[in-house]
Amino acid sequence: MQNIGNIMKQAKKMQERMARIQQELETKTTEAQAGGGMVKVVVNGKFEVVSLQIEKEVVNPEDIEMLQDLVAAAVNEGIRKAQEMASAEMAKITGGLSIPGLGSF
């Protein structure tokens, strides 16, 4: 029974550390760009777009599809980088183990 008590204590500590890291991730950001920096995006650790910057040279009413593609590419890259950042932070707790139920990081 003592082993179960120790396991429960360890699980609680891990859960507290995970909650703390999730709070920290809200303040951490990563930047991505597309079109050679013509479109830049900042994404936080909650996978939310914090800012989006578009250089006026890339805005062409005759080719709106290119702008849409650049924005999508920058946002997708920003989300990918934020996922990598979150995974790296969670790996500090789990030691790189894949633990079911902890979310997909």
CATH architecture: 2-Layer Sandwich
Mean pLDDT: 87
Q: Might you state the CATH topology name?
A: Ybab, Chain: A
| Derived structural class | alpha+beta
Distance between the termini: 33 Å
Principal-axes geometry comes out as: rod-shaped
Number of helices: 2
Helix content range of the residues, please?
40-55%
Widest beta sheet: strand line-up? 1-2-3
Describe the structure.
- With 105 residues, the chain is α+β, with helices and mostly antiparallel strands.
- The chain has helices at 2-27, 64-94; strands spanning 29-34, 39-44, 49-54.
- The protein has one domain: Ybab, Chain: A.
- The chain has a three-stranded antiparallel β-sheet with strand order 1-2-3.
- Strand 1 (29-34) and strand 2 form a beta hairpin.
- Helix 1 runs antiparallel to helix 2 (64-94).
- The longest helix is centred in the last third of the chain and has 31 residues, at 64-94.
- It is rod-shaped.
- The model has no long low-confidence stretch (mean pLDDT 87).
The gist of it:
The protein is α+β, with helices and mostly antiparallel strands and 105 residues long. It is built from two helices and three strands. Strands 1-2-3 form a three-stranded antiparallel sheet.
Task: Please outline the helices and strands.
Blueprint: H1 2-27, E1 29-34, E2 39-44, E3 49-54, H2 64-94
Antiparallel strand pairs: 1-2, 2-3
Helix pairs in contact: 1-2
List the defining traits of the structure above.
single chain, 105 residues, alpha+beta, Ybab, Chain: A, 3-stranded antiparallel β-sheet, 2 helices
